[in-house]
């Protein structure tokens, strides 16, 4: 019984240590700036995804860009959105090397806010 309790305590200590070491430095813990992300979106994403994220552009239709308001896009986690921006997917090129982690975090923050608005809504 004491061995089990000791293992539980050690497990909790290990998890807390891991959180304290990795937590603040982890890409998952970093929050981006949606205003900076909007500028990046306008420069890098709106040609295909449209200024409102609906992908209702000539290029977007030609390459099959995803509507960021779609149920498919809505169910993506921030980690999945980040991975698609960094590594690309399908016809979407990777932006991770060009933008870096901080700018990708800004872009994720904006895409999350944008996807909450109905398609066709005007940007702030």
Could you explain how this protein is built, in words?
- Residues 14-29 have low confidence and may be disordered.
- The chain has 2 domains: 1-30; 31-116, Cytochrome c-like domain (Cytochrome Bc1 Complex, Chain D, domain 2, Orthogonal Bundle).
- The chain has helices at 2-22, 34-44, 46-49, 58-63, 71-74, 78-87, 96-116.
- It has 124 residues and is mainly alpha-helical.
Total tally of structural domains: 2
Structural class: mainly alpha
CATH domain fold name of the largest domain: Cytochrome Bc1 Complex, Chain D, domain 2
Instruction: State mean pLDDT (0 to 100 scale).
Output: 81
Could you tell me the strand content as a percent range?
under 5%
SSE topology:
Blueprint: H1 2-22, H2 34-44, H3 46-49, H4 58-63, H5 71-74, H6 78-87, H7 96-116
Helix pairs in contact: 2-7, 6-7
Task: Describe this protein with a few key phrases.
7 helices; Cytochrome Bc1 Complex, Chain D, domain 2; globular; mainly alpha; 124 residues
Give a quick rundown of the structure:
By secondary structure, this protein is mainly alpha-helical.
């Amino acid at each position: 019984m004491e061995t089990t309790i000791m293992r539980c305590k050690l497990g909790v200590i290990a998890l807390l240590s891991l959180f304290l070491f990795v937590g603040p430095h982890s890409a998952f813990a970093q929050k981006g700036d949606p205003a900076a992300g909007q500028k990046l979106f306008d420069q890098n994403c709106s040609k295909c995804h449209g200024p409102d994220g609906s992908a209702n552009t000539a290029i977007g239709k030609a390459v099959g860009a995803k509507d960021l308001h779609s149920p498919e896009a809505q169910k993506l986690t921030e980690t999945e959105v980040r991975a698609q921006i960094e590594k690309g997917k399908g016809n979407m090129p990777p932006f991770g090397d060009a933008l870096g982690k901080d700018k990708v975090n800004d872009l994720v923050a904006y895409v999350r806010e944008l996807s909450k608005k109905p398609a066709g809504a005007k940007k702030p």
